[in-house]
Write a structure and sequence with these properties.
The complex is a heterodimer. Chain A is built from three helices and eleven strands. By secondary structure, chain A is mainly β. Chain A has a single domain, classed as OB fold (Dihydrolipoamide Acetyltransferase, E2P). In chain A, a hairpin with a 2-residue loop joins strand 4 and strand 5. Chain A is globular and about 45 Å long. Chain B is of the alpha+beta class. Chain B has five domains: 142 residues, Four Helix Bundle (Hemerythrin (Met), subunit A) (Up-down Bundle); 127 residues, Alpha-Beta Plaits, CATH 3.30.70; 62 residues; 181 residues, Heat Shock Protein 90; 130 residues, OB fold (Dihydrolipoamide Acetyltransferase, E2P) (Beta Barrel), CATH 2.40.50.180. Chain B contains 24 helices and 24 strands. In chain B, the strands form six sheets. Chain B has a six-stranded mixed beta sheet. A five-stranded mixed beta sheet of chain B has the order 8-10-11-13-12. In chain B, strands 22-14-15-24-23 form a five-stranded mixed beta sheet, with no helix packed on it. In chain B, a hairpin with a 2-residue loop joins strand 18 and strand 19. Chain B is elongated, with a radius of gyration of 35 Å. Classes of the chains: A mainly beta, B alpha+beta. Chains A and B meet through strand 4, strand 5 and strand 7 of A and strand 23 and strand 24 of B.
C-alpha cells in the first residue's frame, strides 16, 4: 500500500542525451526504443522530419529533435537511438536521440516548473533535480507541434 | 434469449425491405393497378412489422402495422391508390428509416412516435370506407392474414367439462365468445384492470375459462394480454363495449367461438360434434398448436428484449459484408493450396542439400506460392466487393421527390447497378453521387418552358451509368440539360477574385470547368433548398480524392453535362511499378501508367520554357522526378532517359526516372498521422521484401 501511495506523487522519466545536455521524457508517452536504422527520406517536408522507418510492419515518421530545437545536426553513432512516442494528438512519432541513459523516478517536489516565456519557444516543461544533476524535462506536445503554430 | 446478436441481421434485412418498399412503391405510382406490386409491398411491410416486433421495437412496429393495414385494404380492393397515399407512405418509409438509423447508432429506436403519419394512415384507411362500423371487419381480415396471431383465445386448452358446458350453452341458444383483452403497457396495476374486466364481463355472462388462469392473473403473472371464453346472452358488441369501458384497456378482440379451431382434450368427440368442419380439423388443430409455440416464443423474445434494452445501452453495430458462399469456398481452396505450397517449400528446403546441383525445386515452389498469393489477394478483394446497387437504389426515389419539389419533369435512367466496388468505397460514394444528381436536377435541367423553346422533350433525362474500366470503376452522371455556361463561370470567378481577367482570357474551357471544384463556388443565381449553397462540388471532389479516385466534368452548353467519377477497385493492395530516382526507391501505381519509353536527350523540345517530348502525335510535358523529389539524378545528362508516361483522364505526362526495378504487388500503408498529407506528391508508403520503406508516388498530382 505504501508503494502505491508514492506512485501518485512521482513521475518516471527516461533520461536521454542530446549533445552535452540531459533531457527527460515522461515514460508514459514512450512506446518503444529502437536502434538507429535506415530512414527513408520523404521529400518536400520540413527539414526536421527525417523520413519514415519500418517498425514491425508499420510505417512510422521520424523527426530530428536536434533540428527542431535548432541544435547542430545529428551525428549517428553506435549509441544513437530512435525513441518511438505515442501521443493522442500526433499519433506515433519517432525521435532521434544521441543516447538513452537511464530511467529515473522523480518526486513531484524534485521538479521545478519553468516560468512561461512569451518571447521564446520553450521546449522544456520543467527542470528535474536528480542526484545533484539537472534534467530538462521535455514538453513533447510543444516539441512535436508544427513550426508555424509555435 | 438475447436478441442483440440478431441486431445486425435485423438491420440488414430491414434495410433491404425498406429499399424494396421504396422501389415497389415507385412502381406502384406508375401503375397503380398492378396486383403483383401491391402483394409484394404488403409482404415486405408485413415482414418488417414482424421483425420490428420480434426485436421489441414497438414504435416501428406500430407504424408498419398501420402501413400494412392500408395496403391490406388496397389489396382487398377497398382502397384506391392515389397520390396522397403514395406521399404518406413515402413519409412513413422515411420515418422508418429514421428509426433504423437510431437503432444502428444506439440500439434504441428513439422516442418519435410519428403520430402525424399514423394519423394520416388512419385517415386514408377511414376514407376508404363509408362507415366506421367496418373497422372490426378490417381487424378481422388482418388478423386472419396473420394466422390468427391476435386471437389468442384459440390457444386456450379446453377440457372435457368445458367442452360439455359450451355445447350445452349452444344448445340453449346462448352465445359463446372468445375474447382477447390487451392492457396498455403503461398500466401499473395490470391485475386490478384484469379484475375489472372480469367483473364487467361477468355482468353480461359467465366466464368458463381464462388463459392464463384466474389465479395467475390475480398474481399479475401475465404479459399485457389475456384471453377468456365467455357464455353470454348479450351480443358481441355489447360485451366488447363493456370491456372497453374499463380504463387502460388497449384493445379487445372478440369473436364467436369456433369449436373447430380449439384445442380440446376430447378431440374426437369435439370433431364429431362440431360436425361442420369434418376432417380438416386435425390439420387445423396441429396448426394452432404450432402457432401456440411460436407465439409464446415471440412473447418471450419481446419481454427479454425489453429487459435487455433497459439493462445496457447497446454498442454501435459493426459494419458487415454479406458474402456469397461461393466466394468463401474459393478462399478456402486457396488457403489449402497455400498450405500445400508451404509444405512443398519445407520439403524443398530439406532436400536442397541433395538437389543442390539443380536448385529447381525451390524456384518452382516459389512461383507456385506467388500465384497462390495473387489469387488469394484477388479473392479476398472480391469478398470485400459489394455491388453499388445498395447505394444507387435510393436515387429513383430521390429524383421523384426532387421532381415534385422543383416542379420539373424528369426521369432517371440507371445502368450498371451490379458493378462491384470495395465496401468502404461504396459506403462513401453515396453522398457525392447524390450531390451530382441533385445538381443535375436543379441546375442542369432547364425549366419546362426553356426545354420547349429548345425543342427538347418535356421530360428531362438524367443518366447514372456505372461500369468497370480496367482497374477502375467509372460512374457517370449525365443530364440532357443546360450544360455549363463557361462564360458565367469565368465571370463569377473573376468577380470572386479567384482568377484575374487576364488569366481568364488564356484559360481553356476545361480549365474553367475545373474552377467549379474550387471551394465555395456556386453559379446558381438563386440559392435553392436543393443545391447551390456553394458547399458542393469541392466536397464532392475532396471525398472522391480521399478514396483515391478522381472526378472530371465534360459539358456542352445547351446540350447537357457529364460528370465522370473514376474509382480504384480496391484501396489496400495495388500493382505498382518500382522505380529508382537518385538512389531511392519509389512505387508508381500501375493504374496510372500508360507506357514506358526510352527517350534520348535530344528528343526533348522546349515549349514555353517547359520541357516536352513528341510521342506518336502527342506533345507530352516532361517531369524530372529528381527535381520534384529534391534529389540528384544518378544519370548523366547525355544518357538516354527512362520516361514513364502517366495518364490522368486524358492528360499525359512523362516522368523521368533513373532506373526501372519492375512490377510488384504492394501493400499501401499510411505514413502516420504526423507526416501524412504534408507531402502532396506522396500518397503513402509500402514495405518492401527487405524491410525497407518505399514511398508511393501519386502520379496524379504531377500531371
Amino acid at each position: 500500500m505504501e508503494e502505491l501511495k508514492t506512485v501518485g506523487d512521482t513521475t518516471q522519466f527516461i533520461v536521454i542525451r542530446l549533445g552535452a545536455e540531459q533531457y527527460g521524457i515522461d515514460i508514459k508517452y514512450i512506446d518503444n526504443i529502437v536502434r538507429m536504422q535506415h530512414i527513408t527520406r520523404v521529400p518536400k517536408v520540413d527539414a526536421f522530419l527525417k523520413g519514415v522507418i519500418n517498425l514491425r510492419g508499420e510505417v512510422i515518421p521520424v523527426m530530428s529533435i536536434r533540428l527542431k530545437m535548432d541544435l547542430p545536426a545529428d551525428e549517428y553513432t553506435k549509441s544513437t537511438r530512435i525513441i518511438i512516442l505515442k501521443l493522442e494528438q500526433h499519433g506515433t512519432v519517432g525521435i532521434i536521440v544521441d543516447e538513452v541513459k537511464e530511467v529515473v523516478t522523480l518526486e513531484n517536489d524534485q521538479v521545478e516548473k519553468m516560468a512561461y516565456d512569451k518571447e521564446e519557444v520553450n521546449f522544456i516543461s520543467g527542470i528535474g533535480k536528480y542526484e545533484g544533476g539537472l534534467i530538462s524535462l521535455l514538453d513533447l506536445n510543444i516539441v512535436l507541434q508544427e513550426r508555424e503554430n509555435v | 434469449m438475447d436478441v442483440s446478436q440478431y441486431l445486425e441481421i435485423f438491420l440488414d434485412e430491414t434495410k433491404e425491405h425498406l429499399q424494396n418498399l421504396n422501389t415497389q412503391i415507385l412502381e406502384l405510382e406508375q401503375d397503380s393497378e398492378n396486383m403483383d406490386t401491391i402483394n409484394e409491398i404488403f409482404r415486405a411491410a408485413h415482414s418488417l412489422k414482424g421483425m420490428a416486433g420480434t426485436m421489441g421495437y414497438k414504435r416501428m412496429q406500430a407504424l408498419t402495422h398501420d402501413m400494412e393495414n392500408v395496403f391490406s385494404e388496397v389489396r382487398n380492393g377497398n382502397l384506391k391508390v392515389n397520390a396522397e397515399m403514395i406521399d404518406t407512405v413515402f413519409q412513413c418509409l422515411d420515418a422508418l428509416d429514421e428509426y433504423l438509423t437510431n437503432i444502428q447508432t444506439t440500439a434504441d429506436e428513439g422516442t418519435n412516435d410519428n403520430e402525424p403519419i399514423i394519423k394520416k394512415l388512419t385517415d386514408i384507411l377511414n376514407g376508404g370506407k363509408e362507415e366506421k362500423a367496418s373497422e372490426p371487419a378490417k381487424e378481422e381480415k388482418v388478423s386472419a392474414d396473420e394466422n390468427t396471431d391476435e386471437q389468442k383465445w384459440l390457444q386456450i386448452k379446453l377440457d372435457g367439462t368445458d367442452c360439455h358446458v359450451i355445447k350445452e350453452a349452444e344448445k340453449q341458444g346462448k352465445n359463446v365468445y372468445g375474447l382477447t383483452v390487451k392492457i396498455q403497457e403503461s398500466c401499473l396495476l395490470k391485475a386490478a384492470r384484469a379484475f375489472l374486466v372480469y367483473k364487467a364481463v361477468e355482468e353480461l355472462g359467465e366466464i368458463i375459462i381464462s388463459s392464463p388462469s384466474a389465479q395467475d392473473i390475480e398474481d399479475e403473472k401475465f404479459d399485457f394480454d389475456f384471453s377468456l371464453v365467455v357464455i353470454s346472452e348479450a351480443d358481441i358488441e355489447k360485451v366488447k363495449k363493456a370491456v372497453m369501458g374499463v380504463s387502460e384497456v388497449e384493445s379487445v378482440i372478440a369473436d364467436k367461438l369456433d369449436m373447430s379451431l380449439m384445442d380440446t382434450e376430447e378431440e374426437a368427440a369435439a370433431q364429431s360434434d362440431a360436425g361442420t368442419a369434418g376432417n380438416a380439423d386435425v390439420a387445423d388443430t396441429t396448426a394452432v398448436a404450432i402457432q401456440e409455440v411460436s407465439a409464446d416464443r415471440a412473447v418471450e423474445t419481446k419481454a427479454t428484449a425489453q429487459e435487455k434494452k433497459q439493462q445496457v445501452a447497446k454498442p454501435v453495430v459493426n459494419r458487415t459484408v454479406r458474402v456469397d458462399i461461393e466466394k468463401l469456398d474459393v478462399l478456402m481452396n486457396l488457403v489449402s493450396e497455400l498450405i500445400i505450397a508451404k509444405n512443398s517449400l519445407v520439403a524443398a528446403s530439406s532436400s536442397t542439400q541433395e538437389k543442390a546441383t539443380t536448385g529447381m525445386g525451390f524456384n518452382e515452389q516459389i512461383e507456385y506460392l506467388g500465384s497462390v498469393t495473387t489469387n488469394l489477394h484477388e479473392s479476398v478483394m472480391k469478398v470485400r466487393m459489394v455491388p453499388i446497387e445498395s447505394v444507387v437504389n435510393k436515387f429513383p426515389r430521390m429524383i421523384r421527390d426532387l421532381s415534385k419539389k422543383l416542379n420539373k419533369k424528369m426521369e432517371l435512367y440507371m445502368s450498371g447497378e451490379e458493378t462491384e466496388l470495395d465496401r468502404t468505397v461504396v459506403d462513401e460514394i453515396g453522398d457525392p453521387l447524390m450531390h451530382l444528381l441533385r445538381n443535375a436536377a436543379d441546375h442542369g435541367l432547364e425549366s419546362a418552358e426553356v426545354r420547349a423553346q429548345r425543342g427538347k422533350p418535356a421530360v428531362g433525362s438524367i443518366w447514372l451509368d456505372a461500369y468497370q474500366d480496367g482497374n477502375n470503376v467509372v460512374i457517370e452522371v449525365r443530364d440532357d440539360g443546360n450544360g455549363i455556361d463557361t462564360k458565367a463561370v469565368k465571370a463569377k470567378a473573376i468577380e470572386r477574385g479567384t482568377i484575374t481577367p487576364e488569366q481568364g482570357e488564356s484559360m481553356s474551357e476545361k480549365e474553367i470547368m475545373d474552377l467549379l471544384f474550387l471551394p465555395s463556388f456556386s453559379t446558381a443565381k438563386q440559392v435553392s433548398d436543393v443545391s447551390g449553397r456553394g458547399v458542393g462540388l469541392d466536397v464532392v471532389r475532396s471525398k472522391i480524392e480521399s478514396l483515391s479516385g478522381e472526378v472530371e466534368v465534360r459539358s456542352k452548353l445547351g446540350e447537357g453535362s457529364t460528370w465522370i467519377i473514376r474509382l480504384p477497385l480496391t484501396l489496400a493492395i495495388i500493382q505498382a511499378l518500382m522505380v529508382v530516382v537518385g538512389g531511392e526507391k519509389y512505387a508508381i501505381s500501375l493504374g496510372s501508367i500508360q507506357t514506358i519509353e526510352d527517350v534520348s536527350p535530344d528528343e526533348i523540345k522546349l515549349v514555353q520554357n517547359k520541357e516536352v517530348i513528341h510521342l506518336r502525335g502527342n506533345v507530352i510535358p516532361i517531369v524530372r522526378l529528381a527535381n520534384v523529389l529534391e534529389t540528384e539524378s544518378a544519370k548523366n545528362e547525355d544518357e538516354n532517359m527512362v520516361v514513364v508516361i502517366a495518364k490522368k483522364g486524358d492528360r499525359l505526362a512523362g516522368l523521368v526516372v533513373d532506373e526501372l526495378l519492375g512490377q510488384q504487388e504492394i501493400v499501401i500503408k499510411s505514413m502516420g498521422k504526423y507526416i501524412d498529407n504534408k507531402c502532396k506528391i506522396i500518397s503513402g508508403a509500402t514495405i518492401l521484401g527487405d524491410g525497407e520503406v518505399a514511398l508511393i508516388l501519386d502520379a496524379n498530382t504531377l500531371i
